[in-house]
Amino acid sequence: MACKRGALIVLEGVDKAGKTTQCNRLVQALQQSGRPAEMMRFPDRTTTIGKLISAYLEKKSDLEDHTVHLLFSANRWELVPLMKKKLEQGITLVVDRYAFSGVAFTSAKPGFCLDWCKQPDVGLPKPDLVMFLQLSPAEAALRGQFGEERYETSVFQRTVQQKFEQLMKDPSVNWQVIDAAQGVDEVHNDITSHSLNAINIAQNLPLGELWK
Ligand code: NYM
Ligand code: MG
Predict the structure, then answer these.
(1) CA–CA separation, 181 vs 75, rounded Å?
(2) What is its pathway (predicted)?
(3) Does ligand 1 come within 6 angstroms of the Cβ of 72?
(4) H/E element, 132
(5) For residue range 16-65, what is the model confidence (pLDDT) as tens digits?
(6) Are 187 and 135 in contact (CB under 8 A)?
(7) Residue 120 and which of 99, 100, 107, 152 are 20 to 30 A apart at CA?
């Protein structure tokens, strides 16, 4: 009998919500309980495309807005063969940002609609679970200054938050909203219980296709 597939689990949210910390904690907890798990993140800045994106985010280069949107999407597509291979091997993937960040950040720019932004990512492996780490702008501000990268301003992040809210209305995606204002351990416990549930369900289901 073929081994059961791993689950594709995504963490989304505005900057400072604690995604990276929680992805690391989740992978560690899954591994310690004997479940194979690995972390991935988008953008993956290590590839050739990822380096172009990274230079753009660091403001070392300028790219036209449609162009950079398509590069973010291409950066996901180039990792799809590896993602599928790992999932088939029974490894659960915990992913820090995915197509939802892609759509929320670009559609927060003037002149971009949600529908155009979604198209390049249609057909990507569909996450079995997307957890949105919900943090109000006021709570985010209490966590200190934003960084130096592009998009890291409170005005832009408010618009990004509204775009995420629009995306969360889509019932074809398994969204779970997590209260990221709780303590790190409480957030971790919420995330772990949703993830264990998703892993159990996913092992008997084929991997889906996003937004199709
Ligand atoms: N971002 C991320 C996008 O604009 N489009 C995308 O498709 C993805 C995956 O890049 N501000 C933005 C969101 C973040 C930045 O930051 C990546 P980090 O700290 O590497 O997650
Ligand atoms: Mg960040």
Answers:
(1) 31
(2) Pyrimidine metabolism; dTTP biosynthesis
(3) yes
(4) strand 129-134
(5) 899 999 999 999 999 999 999 999 999 999 999 999 999 999 999 999 99
(6) no
(7) 152
Report the C-alpha gap between 66 and 6 in whole angstroms: 33
Residue whose CA lies nearest to ligand 1 atom number 19: 15
| Domain assignments of the chain as residue spans, ordered by start | 8-205
Question: Among 3.40.190.10, 3.40.50.300, 1.10.357.10, 3.30.565.10, what is the CATH number of 8-205?
Answer: 3.40.50.300
Residue from 24, 45, 57 to probe ligand 1 pocket by mutation (most atoms less than 8 Å from CB): 57
Q: How far is the CA of 15 from the centre of ligand 2 (A)?
A: 5
Q: How far is the CA of 82 from the centre of ligand 2 (A)?
A: 23
**Atom of ligand 1 minimally distant from the CA of 45:** 20
Q: Please give the distance, rounded to the nearest whole angstrom, from the Cα atom of residue 4 to the centre of ligand 2.
A: 33
Three-state secondary-structure class, residue 190: helix
Between the CA of 94 and the centroid of ligand 2 the distance, in Å, is 16
How does pLDDT run across 83-118, given as a tens digit for each residue?
A: 999 999 999 999 999 999 999 999 999 999 999 999
144-178 per-position pLDDT tens digit? 888 899 999 989 999 999 999 999 999 999 999 99
What single letter denotes the amino acid at residue 89? Q
- Judged by its nearest atom, the ligand closest to the C-alpha of residue 11 is 1
Q: Report pLDDT for 77.
A: 99
